[in-house]
Each structure stands twice: as C-alpha cells, then as structure tokens.
Design a protein that fits this description.
- The structure is a homodimer of 144-residue chains.
- Chain A has 144 residues and is mainly alpha-helical.
- The first copy, chain A, contains seven helices and two strands.
- A two-stranded antiparallel ribbon of chain A has the order 1-2.
- In chain A, α3 crosses α4.
- The radius of gyration of chain A is 18 Å and the shape is globular.
- The two termini of chain A are 26 Å apart.
- At the A-B interface, α1, α2, α6 and α7 of A face α1, α2, α6 and α7 of B.
- Chain A binds a DNA duplex (23 and 23 nucleotides) through α1 and α4.
Chain lengths: 144, 144
DNA sequence: TATTGTTATACTCTATAACTATA
DNA sequence: TATAGTTATAGAGTATAACAATA
C-alpha cells in the first residue's frame, strides 16, 4: 500500500470521528427546542434555493422522501411552510416558506448559531479559511 | 456589524449545513449493518486511547453517560468489549476491547471506510490537506 | 454528600416497504 | 408503466430524570 493510500485511510478515519463528534455537539447546542436542527436545515435550504417539491428538498438534504414528508408535515403544522398543488403536474406539491419562517430564520441566524459563531470568532482567521474551504469540500463529498 | 462578524455568521450557517449533510451521508453509507457507526466510533476511541471507564468514553464521544451505557451494553453483547471492575474504585468499570474487536476494526479500516477513502482519493492533494486541518479544528470546536 | 453508573422513559431522526394518485 | 408523494412501521441514536452503589 502506498504512502498516499495510507494517509488517505488515516484521514478517512479521523475525519469520520471529527464530523460525528462535531455534529453531535451542534445538535445538542439547541436552546429553543420547538424547531429542531433538521427542521432548520430544511428551512435554510428553502430560503437559499426557493420553493421546491418535497422530493427535491429530500435530495438537497440527502434524506429519503418519507423522511422529508415528516419534516414538511411538522413545519406545516407550525405554520412555517405552505403546501400548494403544482400548477401543471397534479402529482407534485410545492413547498414554500411563510413570513413566519422568514422571521424565524432571521432570529435563528442571530440566536441559534450564536454558539457556533462565537466559537468561530475565537479561531484564527486562517482556521476559519480552512473551515470555509472544508465546508465546500464536504458538500461535494456528500453530494456525488 | 463588522465585515468579519458577517463572514463568521455566514460560515457558521454553511458549515452547519455541510456537516449535517456529510454526516448523514456517512451514516447511510454503511453496508455491514451489524455494527453501527456509533458503535464503531466508540471502538475506535478505545483502540486509540486504551481502556477507560464508560464516563470517560462518553466524554470523549460527546454523549451523555446513559447513551454510552447503551452502546457499551450492545458491544458487550456482541463480544466486542469487556466490562471489568475497577481495581481500587468499586464504583467504576473499565471497558476494554476484545481480540474480536481488534480484528473487526482492522477489517473496517479496509471495508467500511472504503467509500470515504475512495472519495478522498478522488480529491486533489490540497483538498485532502484542507480536510486534514479541518478535522483537527472541528475536534477542537467539539471539545471545549 | 458527591461521584459513577445504570434503569426507565421518551423524543428525534431516518429508513424500507407498501399504498395512492396522477402522468 | 413510471413518477411523486404519503402512510405504516421499525430501528438507531440520544437525552433527561430517577435510582443504586460506592467513596
């Protein structure tokens, strides 16, 4: 086995542990328990990319359609998204944010990410640059 | 709000989404369903740091003690760890890997991380270097 | 009284399989 | 038949609260 292959295996191992621990920390950091991190991620994606079908949303978030159905049902119950029939395709549904969700996202951007933002502020600028690049690479890895 | 603060907030947002999607992808990548990713992470930590108490293991993995109890009970049932009384403190228990676990970890290092290793091999060397640094930074963020 | 670990309980997150409705 | 979405069901993962044993 080549040196590069060995290094890559070690990186895979360390990266996996780091991502698991970091994501646990992020989940547990929640203060407002009404909207979960999964819900918030779906809302963020809707704001970023605009209205879309449940299937598209599931693909964006890398979950299966039934999982997204549950999220959407919960969000609709909280008045954070609307479900409207697709104009031409009767099978499809269009999910969109309500004004309440917009306000919630603005609030979350300040409150909920406060912990992470605070931690990031304590890092060196070069470290933030590394994470900025790493976020893009991880999205790429999650995607393909 | 300063430019740096705005950038940090945006980084917090993007990093959170990237880590969530990436960790979902990692969890779903499992082929061998007998040992879960959570179990594997605990075993990896034991191999890396040696025998320790359930409480220490929970702290390492950033979970609460009852959560680790469940993991340890499952692993013991599979013959992958042993629970022995602490020599001097009757309250404590020492968790250690069995030879079966050592073999499993060796196998997993090849098989289970195959997907991630393969994806990492496809990256540019500079991208791997970024992830190597990012893994350390995320561990630091998860820790404090 | 403080610490370690466990039990009891419940909730979140996610999946697969089966079903319905529309194309 | 194929696609989009949902319902039904189940399992993994994790938490908080209460308890037991030991220091």
């Amino acid at each position: 086995m080549s040196r590069t292959t060995l290094d890559t295996a070690a990186l895979a191992h360390d990266l996996r542990l780091a991502v698991m621990r970091f994501s646990r920390r992020l989940r547990n950091q929640r203060v407002d328990t009404s909207v979960t991190l999964t819900h918030l991620a779906a809302l963020s994606t809707l704001r970023q990319h605009g209205p879309m079908s449940p299937g598209e949303l599931a693909a964006q978030e890398r979950v299966q359609p039934p999982s997204m159905t549950r999220v959407v049902v919960a969000l609709e119950g909280m008045g954070l998204v609307t479900r409207t029939p697709h104009p031409t395709d009767g099978r499809q549904v269009v999910i969109d944010l309500t004004p309440a969700a917009q306000g919630l996202l603005d609030e979350e951007a300040r409150a909920r990410e406060a912990w992470l933002s605070g931690r990031l502020q304590d890092l060196a600028p070069e470290e933030r640059a590394v994470l900025r690049e790493a976020a893009e690479i991880m999205e790429k890895l999650a995607g393909g």
